[in-house]
Amino acid sequence: MSTDGLLAAQQKMRDAGVAQTAIDVFTRYHHQLADGVTGSIPEDTISPYTDPAHLDGITVDPEVAARAFDQLVVIDLNGGLGTSMGMDRAKSLLPVRDGRSFLEIIVEQVLAARAATGARLPLLFMDSFRTREDTLEVLARYPDLPVGDLPLDFLQNKEPKLRRDDLSPVTWDADPSLEWCPPGHGDIYTALQTSGILAKLLEAGFRYASVSNSDNLGTVPDPRIAGWFAASGAPYAAELCRRTPADRKGGHLAVRRSDGRLILRDTAQTPPEEMDFFTDENRHPFFHTNNLWFDLQALDEVLRAHDGVMPLPLIRNEKTVDPADRASTPVYQIESAMGAAIEVFDGATAIVVGRERFLPVKATSDLLLVRSDAYALDEREALVRQVDPVPTVSLDADHYTLIGDFDARFADGVPSLREARSLTVEGDHVFGAGVIARGDAKVTAEDPREIAAGTILQG
């Protein structure tokens, strides 16, 4: 049954013009899925990773840093649609500061770094088939952004969602586009090769890549980390941050007991009954930021050695074909994580960086925080926190989860948070201009719906 499903899926990908190498990657995972592989990583197969290097304790030669920075390409993952916040186009187009989007601020961070250092520093976006058009339209406003004949983006591959009952490609006549999904950000390695970008970068003399998510404005191009990575001689490195109780959902690195290799374990790879181990910030003290560095030459060698199929572990995600309809056909989405490549490279390593390099926006509560005066942009176009610690924000899920609802309720701006430890909003409220939160500020369902301009909120 699964053989027929695989053949149908392969043909569907060929008909859609998907590269053969990407089909080969999908085929590898389909075989694993048919064999019952779930991608699970039990706690008794790993040991905690507790002794990474720390950036704040490292001296970097300025000449090495400058040379490495001029050989660096910045890559941003830009395939997400922000569906959890009710968006239907590239999440990076969401306004963040002063009317500027993630995408615009990322571009300006790179342009500022070029001006400050003289480095070439090309910027590439890995787009999905749903984000490419809108992204390129915005990038066209920056005529100085392209470097040489390098493009500004490359396209992530796509693959069919699979019915859970027989592993055949699902059909969904109501919206055929929902029959497809991206293969996770682990596809970056295959996409770099099949697009020809990897070969172009090597031919142009680029040696290193820095990769992060486009919803994380903390990853400002950094010569110091580039210099550390080049001097380390490692083929691959991951940025880590120290865990707090608020970081229990983030993936972490561990040491695989069978061979001593560093591996990445995500939530979806943890047995449900072992989540207590996964979320224990004392047992696993560092989380994986999804900010990565790799040597382009080393990547080329690994891909050649594996016929273009990066041997990343499977992540089996259980979904419905229409994410908004829980009654729609149950499917598997075969995915892989780019950070899992740490186990593929001999000599891969990791480094602990400051929390300022991890500012993801996964929910509207995060968006409120980065739009607020708890942060400000500096001359590097970096978001710099203005208070320590940064306040926590909790918004009523029934009224603020979707971006349209959120923007309507904060049409005159978000509250000031510089004097706040936390802001909790319960119920449905519309905020006027100049609202100030102090201490442990809280708005309850019993408070007036209209929070008047200039109101001071405090616990």
In a nutshell, what does this entry contain?
The chain has helices at residues 2-15, 20-34, 62-69, 102-117, 132-139, 188-194, 197-203, 223-232, 275-278, 296-305, 364-371, 397-400, 403-409, and strands at 46-48, 53-54, 72-78, 95-97, 100-101, 123-127, 153-155, 159-160, 162-163, 180-181, 208-213, 236-242, 252-256, 262-265, 286-295, 315-320, 330-335, 349-352, 375-377, 383-385, 392-395, 416-425, 430-431, 436-443, 450-451, 456-458. The chain is an alpha/beta fold. β19 and β20 (383-385) form a beta hairpin.
Mean pLDDT, as a whole number? 94
Strand content: 15-25%
Query: Rough shape?
Result: globular
Tally the structural domains.
Answer: 2
How would you name the CATH homologous superfamily of the largest domain?
Spore Coat Polysaccharide Biosynthesis Protein SpsA, Chain A
Give the distance, in angstroms, between the N- and C-terminal Cα atoms: 61 Å
CATH topology of the largest domain: Spore Coat Polysaccharide Biosynthesis Protein SpsA, Chain A
CATH top level assignment of the largest domain: Alpha Beta
Radius of gyration, in Å, reads 22 Å
Q: Name the helicity range.
A: 25-40%
Number of strands: 26
Low-pLDDT regions = none
In DSSP terms (H or I, runs of 4 or more residues), the helix count works out at: 13
The appropriate CATH architecture of the largest domain is Alpha-Beta Complex
Main beta sheet: 8 strands, mixed
Structural class: alpha/beta
Strand order of the largest sheet: 2-18-12-15-11-3-6-7
